[in-house]
Automatic annotation (TrEMBL):
Entry GO terms, CC: bacterial nucleoid
GO biological process: DNA recombination; double-strand break repair; SOS response
Protein name stated in the entry: DNA repair protein RecN
Family listed: Belongs to the RecN family.
InterPro entries reported for this sequence: DNA_recomb/repair_RecN, P-loop_NTPase, Rad50/SbcC_AAA
A single MF term (Gene Ontology): ATP hydrolysis activity
Domain Rad50/SbcC-type AAA: 4-133
Keyword DNA damage belongs to the record: yes
Pfam families documented for this protein: AAA_23
Keywords carried by this UniProt record: ATP-binding, DNA damage, DNA repair, Nucleotide-binding
Length: 321
């Protein structure tokens, strides 16, 4: 509520200080007694437009100061504004000062701190509601009527507690909604991971399997050509007449006889002997290889299906499996 209104050099008022009591205060008087000047002074405190013509003749500026005592919702709203502006607020008292020069320039301060006119207007919405003839303002708003009824019934404290409880309930509801979303996301993720684990278990993957499968697939896919080439190599080593192995053995015997006549040739015998042994071992290995080499379309199909499965799982889970 407005507790005190001080006016200096406003229109015909040189100086006036008007205290207000709690509850309803009524000012009466004949037309021209100055009632409208009090309303004008109050309007300056809540950020209304300033007019240099309102300055008393002979004065440099008109000054209006109002002391407000707040509680409940009004105190909360003002506290929020003060926190936004970085001003100190004791939770109860607000002193607003407005100075208007004869040139129409205006300065305002709140609790001795300068503020802009825009800030004063915002503060005025929380401090007071002015009603003039043919003016409705917030009276047309249902929430303003409810607020007035709450004040008349001295329910400011209950209203504040209800607002706090409602805000807490809404916050809890928002937290619950976020939790439900998180739980749903967790459930989806859990289902996905269970499915992935089951799918990977059923695949029975083995480390290095893809490389082995690639070699087996290449061997089966080219079985006929491999048999042709490996058979040709085996024939040259041990089956043709003369075979490479036989030729190397004959060369070894001849060199051995020559070394008996010229010992210096003996140094050539070991590498020749190693070449013969290597040729014989290679021929035996090729024979075993050819014995196990068969074209098997069914086996090739199984291997390719296995490789496709591994490739699909690798793409699906975006990592080697």
């Amino acid at each position: 509520m407005l507790e005190r209104l001080t006016i200096r050099d406003l229109s015909v008022i040189e100086r006036a200080e008007i205290p207000f009591a709690p509850g309803l205060n009524t000012l009466t008087g004949e037309t021209g007694a100055g009632k409208s000047l009090l309303v004008q002074a109050a309007s300056l405190l809540v950020g209304e437009k300033a007019d240099g013509d309102a300055v008393r003749h002979g004065a440099d500026a008109a000054i209006v100061e109002g002391e407000f005592r707040l509680e409940g919702e009004s105190a909360r709203r003002v506290g929020t504004l003060f926190a936004e502006w970085g001003l100190e607020f004791d939770g109860e008292t607000v002193i607003v000062r407005r100075e208007v020069t004869g040139a129409g320039r205006s300065r305002a301060s709140v609790n001795q701190s300068p503020v802009t006119l825009a800030a004063l207007k915002r503060l005025g919405e929380a401090l007071a509601d002015l009603h003039g003839q043919h003016e409705h303002q917030s009276l047309l708003k249902p929430e303003a009527g409810l607020l007035t009824l709450d004040r008349l019934a001295s329910l400011d404290g209950d209203r504040t507690r209800f607002a706090e409880t409602l805000a807490a309930w809404r916050e809890a509801g928002a937290d619950l909604e976020r939790l439900e979303v998180s739980l749903a996301t967790f459930a989806e993720r859990s289902d996905y991971l269970r499915h992935a684990a089951r799918e990977l278990d059923e695949a029975t993957l083995v480390a290095g399997e893809e490389e082995d499968l690639a070699r087996d697939a290449a061997r089966l896919a080219h079985a006929d050509r491999l048999r042709e080439l490996a058979g040709l190599a085996l024939a040259r080593l041990g089956e043709d007449d003369p075979a490479a192995g036989d030729q190397l053995a004959a060369a070894e015997r001849a060199l051995d006889q020559a070394a008996s006549l010229d010992p210096g040739l003996g140094d050539l015998l070991p590498p020749l002997r190693e070449a013969r042994i290597a040729a014989e071992e290679t021929a035996r290995s090729l024979a075993r290889y050819l014995d196990g080499l068969e074209a098997d379309p069914a086996a090739l199909e199984r291997i390719e299906a296995r490789r496709d499965l591994i490739a699909r799982l690798t793409r699906k889970y975006r990592r080697p499996v």
